[in-house]
């Protein structure tokens, strides 16, 4: 019975995924057929015009860049916090910290968005100015629009990093707590320090789990909508300068335009949602390949 239930659950999940993909494809075909631009490379988004012209180049770029910024910031901090809670902090400190992290994971995204718009954006001016002054030579941190409120991809990435931090931390912490005790004791018996135990026993065992946790966080960062919409001033401009206002994400563009869109415009937004769906599938598929390559090292197989 359990085997049949598990197999049935898997089949239902595949059927739901196929239904979502089929719905997005069917709704996107009409809009793509009437589009006068190249859907993948056009920077303009005017699906309600005559003729309709729209593409996902700018918003797909913004989606990927903001998510990558969030991952670069959040994953190292999350792993450090998870190691602190699981292996360094005494129990009287570890339990309240873990409880606080669990509470952060339960905060609604719109609350994060309001915090980002009212607190984070004004306080990002100093950081963006510093990055422009000392790292502007990299072109990525070159800020040409000085004196403007930093509603840009970098600010969106920082906000997304705060949002995914609890997810990555909680999963990583649980993985680190599953490290076989005998592995740690063997390292200690050989004279290893606490950091050497973590480096030689804990991190190798939990590497695949950390990757899985990171992919969960990346999935939320790619699909986050309202929080990004509150801190990002979208514009059809593709630029590598992440401190300049502008950019946009696929989810934010759908939320901002769906209510006022005409039939073709809504189908165009659905087409952009199909692109986001495919990006998410590719990211998770790549993560599964990475985890499979690391699978040969596992304390559970010892």
UniProtKB/TrEMBL annotation:
It is a multi-pass membrane protein. The keyword Transport applies. SUPFAM superfamilies: MetI-like (SSF161098). PROSITE patterns: ABC_TM1. It is found in: Cell membrane. Keywords: Cell membrane, Membrane, Phosphate transport, Transmembrane, Transmembrane helix, Transport. Residues 60-287 form the ABC transmembrane type-1 domain. Coiled coil: none annotated. GO terms for cellular component: plasma membrane. One of its GO terms (biological process) is phosphate ion transport. It comes from the Bacteria. GO terms for molecular function: phosphate transmembrane transporter activity. The chain crosses the membrane at residues 55-85, 97-115, 153-172, 268-291. Part of the binding-protein-dependent transport system for phosphate; probably responsible for the translocation of the substrate across the membrane. Belongs to the binding-protein-dependent transport system permease family. CysTW subfamily. PANTHER family: PHOSPHATE TRANSPORT SYSTEM PERMEASE PROTEIN PST (PTHR30425), PHOSPHATE TRANSPORT SYSTEM PERMEASE PROTEIN PSTC (PTHR30425:SF1). This is Phosphate transport system permease protein. The lineage of its organism: Bacteria, Bacillati, Actinomycetota, Actinomycetes, Kitasatosporales.
């Amino acid at each position: 019975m359990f085997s049949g239930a598990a197999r049935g659950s898997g089949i239902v999940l595949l059927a739901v995924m196929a239904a979502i993909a089929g719905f997005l494809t069917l709704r996107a075909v009409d809009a793509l057929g009437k589009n006068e631009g190249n859907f993948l490379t056009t920077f303009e988004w005017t699906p309600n015009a005559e003729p309709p012209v729209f593409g996902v180049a700018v918003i797909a770029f913004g989606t990927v860049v903001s998510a990558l910024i969030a991952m670069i910031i959040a994953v190292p901090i999350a792993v450090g916090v998870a190691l602190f809670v699981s292996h360094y902090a005494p129990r009287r400190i570890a339990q309240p910290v873990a409880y606080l992290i669990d509470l952060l994971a339960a905060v609604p995204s719109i609350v994060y968005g309001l915090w980002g718009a009212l607190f984070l954006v004004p306080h990002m001016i100093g950081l963006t100015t510093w990055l422009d002054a000392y790292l502007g030579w990299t072109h990525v941190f070159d800020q040409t629009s000085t004196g403007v409120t930093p509603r840009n991809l970098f600010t969106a990435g920082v906000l997304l990093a705060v949002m995914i931090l609890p997810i990555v931390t909680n999963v990583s912490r649980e993985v680190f707590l599953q490290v076989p005790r005998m592995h740690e004791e063997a390292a200690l018996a050989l004279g290893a320090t606490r950091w050497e135990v973590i480096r030689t026993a804990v991190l190798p065992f939990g590497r695949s789990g950390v990757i899985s946790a990171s992919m969960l966080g990346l999935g939320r960062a790619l699909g986050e909508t309202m929080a990004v919409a509150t801190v990002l001033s979208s514009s059809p401009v593709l630029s590598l300068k992440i401190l300049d206002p502008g950019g946009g994400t696929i989810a934010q563009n759908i939320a901002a335009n769906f209510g006022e869109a005409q039939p073709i415009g809504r189908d165009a937004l659905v087409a952009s949602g199909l692109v986001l769906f495919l990006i998410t599938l590719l990211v998770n598929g790549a993560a599964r390949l990475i985890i499979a390559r690391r699978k040969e090292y596992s304390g559970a197989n010892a």
